[in-house]
Recover the amino acids of this structure.
């Protein structure tokens, strides 16, 4: 009995598809993925502490802050405002979850956003 080989992805079609996606949509999608991953690593999901890893969360929140800082003038406030709100919520959740809180301005992403207070 011979197995049929798995179908090879159509990379040309995939390239055409991504070429049609506006840059703002790509940026927002990446930001939402970073936010979701950070929430998981902060233990904010239904699974709670099962996947909690503050070192990983710090990296993700910092990357999200850098992305939003770098693209603030490229995406409209319509897109940026809710992403910034989500970022601030994650930064506050990180501060709350930390056993030894960072000094103001030293938390994840605060290099880009300034100190975050509750």
């Amino acid at each position: 009995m011979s197995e049929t080989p798995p179908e090879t992805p159509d990379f040309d079609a995939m390239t055409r598809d991504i070429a049609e996606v506006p840059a703002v949509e790509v940026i927002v999608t990446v930001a939402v993925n970073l936010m979701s991953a950070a929430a998981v690593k902060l233990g904010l999901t239904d699974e709670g502490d099962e996947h909690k890893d503050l070192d990983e969360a710090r990296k993700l929140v910092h990357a999200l802050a850098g992305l939003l800082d770098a693209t603030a003038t490229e995406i409209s406030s319509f897109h940026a405002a809710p992403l910034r709100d989500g970022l601030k919520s994650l930064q506050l959740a990180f501060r709350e979850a930390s056993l030894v809180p960072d000094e103001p301005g030293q938390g994840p992403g605060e290099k880009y956003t300034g100190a975050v207070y509750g």
